[in-house]
Amino acid sequence: MATIADPRTLTQTNDHASQWQLIWSAFRRHKLAMTGAVIVVCLYLVALFCEFLAPFDPDAPVARDVYHPPQAIHFLDTTPNGGWTFRPHVTGMKQSRDRFTLKTSFAPDPDRKIYLTLFGTGTPYKLWGLIPMERRLIAAATPGERFYFFGADRLGRDMFSRVIYGTRVSMSIGLVGVGVSLMLGLVLGGLSGYYGGFIDMAVQRVVELKLSLPTIPIWLGLSAALPQDWAPLTRYFAITLILSFVGWTELARVVRGRFLALRTEDFVTAARLDGGSRGRVIFRHMMPSMASHIIASVTLAIPVMIIAETSLSFLGLGLLPPTISWGVLLKEAQNVRSIASAPWLFVPGIAVCIAVLALNFLGDGLRDAADPYAQEGR
Amino acid sequence: MSVTPFPSAPSAQPVLEVKNLVTEFATRRGPFRAVDDVSLELYSGRTTCVVGESGSGKSVMARSILQIVDPPGRVLSGQILLHKHRTSRGRTASGEDHTVDLAALHPRSSAIRSIRGRDVAMIFQEPMSSLSPVHRIGDQIGEVIRLHENVSKKEARHRSIELLRRVEIPRPEVAIDRYPFEYSGGMRQRAMIAVALACNPSVLIADEPTTALDVTIQAEILALIRQLQSESDMAVMFITHDMGVVAEIADDIAVMRFGKVVERGDAFSIFENPQHDYTRGLLNAVLELDRPSARRLAMRAERPPAATPILNLTSLRKEFPFTKGFLGLKKDAVLAVEDADLELRAGENLGIVGESGSGKTTLGRCIQRVHSVTGGRILYTGRDGKTIDLAPMTDSQLKEPWKDIRTIFQDPFSSLNPRMTVGQIIGEPLYVSGALSGAKLRERVAELLNLVGLPASAMERYPHAFSGGQRQRISIARAIAPDPRVIIADEATSALDVSLRIQILDLLLDLQERLDLSFIFISHDIAVIRYFCDRIAVMHRGRIVETGETETVCTAPQHPYTRSLLSAVPIADPRRRGTVERIRYREAG
């Protein structure tokens, strides 16, 4: 035929793009998800370097700064000759006590300025509990002076430092918890989807039973059963296990669904006929098709974990002080007094909101981008 | 069928005029013109066939007329003039003109909604997805009537029954209360036609209405459309890729390619005196397909197939068990293949033909042993002359036979793993068996790519960079990689355009000559089988009803079902329209 295209001519667009490159190019077009991704990366960086980023030791109480209000940061300062200079500082606060009610109140003291420096020396600490350091990202120019971006709590501890430390526990409990759920979900869902039959039936009935039990009482029951005298680290892992014990069911269903859909694809049959062993068919041919979907589900599962940890700790049944997590911090904001006199105690709540929203946007974007081939067919 | 092939001479004035229509899709790489400056006219009482291969823009053009192009597509310019005064309904007493430009109407305006379904109706390809599964057939027809005409529910129901009777659905007063899933594929398409005809449209647009149907049902639907048209003065636009269907039904033909109409004319002049190269190529491909390949006949004359069978099936039986009742305690089974006896001789091409649900694919998969077998034997004679029975073997025992018997799948899109490079896909069987690796494997893959007519540079690319025909070549390269002896091609050309079909079939013949292969070719398309296969087995409801030399079976079919099947195949010659008598097959009992 005269007009047939030569089979040797190939199209030139996106030829060598692999699955991940296609996913990335689809994901990049999702602006909200990109924003979410940036925020999530920032949060995990904060969690990783919290000792360096926090200006003070989160557990150091200062009696005279109880319920110290937040101070705004100023970047410009007046020089003695009347000009302006770039010199970040906060305005000091003057404490006064009402003579009759004995209520302390803070008022700005324009004469006292606390100057800030980057990479200044602060109280010594150990990064990751290993490397002794004393440089901090932000420190007072005069050692020993204190400043409070997010205010101070009832013992005069710096909320800003505490929220930063809380990021580490709260964000990591999501990650570790989902990691454990993923293991359970992948193994059980995979078995269920690939073999079908009796195994499938058994696993699915367990999942259904699990889903029929109300979540909060289970959490409460399990965490109330934990001995109160456990070390903070032990307790942390126990809580993680409890959370993932509840969380694996959803992931198991996702994995099973993908397996069932893939099992009937011609390319999986072809892989079997090519003589591949069962393991090779699953891990070399089926898993890569599921990986992107699983990553998306995992990203959407992390915020659930974070919320769960926060709720449990808020109720006093999850992590306990001296562990610092956003939920533990929010526990301080349980009474009416804090709403009236120290609204800054709710800052950890804002942190939870930001983290959960960012992770949800990221997960949504990943889910949309997860199957670049389906979008091409549209 | 006593319908005269050409009911009326073209009335001078068209009902619907498409003038310089341009439809664009916004893509990342800039706008893509799916319909590029198309002009067409539809006349009352005449059928205009729009022919083109996939991607020629014929469906988008049809959807542009009703302004139902999916975003990001939109009608950019041009006119779609509906001359209402030239239809029997719109003719006014005073005889004044009443013309609407559909392209000027907003896609979501009530003005266009009142035209959709009333003046211009549309039938889609897939009858299952174009009917709502949760509404009764009667409600779906009644809704169209009640949307456009102010009638009572009772009246609408009455008219729905009439419509179902018109489209020849048996017992319409009962059938009206059924759901689409209770209808067969052909009945669903009839119901869809009833929906389209509900308001007596002056223009009917049928977008590949018979492509998803079996050939015998296609023949009935075509007869129905022709008959309905002769009863009214409806103008029909019939979109198809099948030249046989065109010859069967067209009065006028427009050939589309790359969004442009390359040739227009009446059916006889296009078929007998095509002007454009593309039309000529398209017709040649169709004509060539309908007869045995000269290449194959020459090959067989030079080296006749051995008399000894390489594969021998004796009373092969496949049941699909299923459970029902509480907790699946009751067991039952569907019989998919019933006692099939078949032999494949070394060096020949055996065709298995049948309609959907006839069990031909299941039979193919049983021979390949993708499915387990319920009963019977599959005797395979290996290179060493030893005969083994594949039927009772396990997956691990089958590893060796699987190297000799390979499958080419139907869908070139789902049969290639999108996440592996072409080199990995083709090399997989060699790599897994440990035969080759590293540079030697690459060398072999390049050689295989060369055999199927692709450049070695294709190795590094992913399947999504290839067109359907190229993908099928990759699939073939994978099949021949372990140097097999038997290849089972399951509808290997069905997803391809007609011009590509011949290319692929010739490639398979070429490989047969070079690599000494035997083929089992499963297809629903008699033309393809006739071109490619030496012998043919006709399947119907899980049974092989007839086996024989292809030419013998095609010219002098013995079994009544084969006769019915052959009589339903459209002939790509408008002069012979209506000369073949349709034979309907009814099973005894």
Low-confidence stretches of chain A: 1-6
Spans of chain B of 5+ residues with little confidence (pLDDT < 50)? Answer: 1-10
Q: Over the alpha carbons, how many angstroms does the gyration radius of chain A reach?
A: 27 Å
| Beta strand % of chain A | 5-15%
**Amino- and carboxy-terminal Cα gap of chain A:** 30 Å
Rounded Rg of chain B: 26 Å
Order of helices and strands of chain A: HHHEEEEHHHHHHHHHH
Number of strands of chain A: 4
Principal-axes shape call of chain A: elongated
Estimated helix fraction of chain B: 25-40%
The biggest sheet of chain B amounts to: 6 strands, mixed
- Tally of individual helices of chain A: 13
How would a crystallographer describe the biggest sheet of chain A? 4 strands, antiparallel
Mean pLDDT of chain B: 85
Class based on secondary structure composition and strand pairing of chain A: alpha+beta
Helix share bin of chain A = 55-70%
Through-space gap between termini of chain B: 27 Å
Give an overview in words.
The complex is a heterodimer of chains A (378) and B (589). By secondary structure, chain A is of the alpha+beta class. In chain A, 56% of the residues lie in helices and 14% in strands. Chain A contains 13 helices and four strands. Chain A has helices at residues 19-28, 31-48, 50-53, 159-195, 197-212, 215-224, 232-263, 266-273, 278-314, 326-331, 336-341, 347-369, 372-377; strands at residues 73-78, 84-97, 104-127, 131-140. Chain A has a four-stranded antiparallel beta sheet with strand order 1-2-3-4. In chain A, strand 3 (104-127) and strand 4 (131-140) form a beta hairpin. In chain A, helix 1 (19-28) crosses helix 12 and helix 2 (31-48) packs across helix 4 (159-195). Chain A is elongated, with a radius of gyration of 27 Å. In chain B, 35% of the residues lie in helices and 25% in strands. Chain B has 21 helices and 20 strands. In chain B, a hairpin with a 2-residue loop joins strand 1 and strand 2 (30-42). The chains are: A alpha+beta (378), B alpha/beta (589). Chain A binds chain B through residues 1-5, 7-8, 10-11, 13-19, 22, 265-267, 269-277, 280, 285, 288-289, 373, 376-377, and chain B through 29, 277-278, 280-282, 284-285, 368, 370, 395, 399, 402-403, 406-407, 409-411, 413-420, 428-429, 432-433, 453-455, 457-458, 460-462, 464-467, 469-470, 473, 478, 499-500, 502-503.
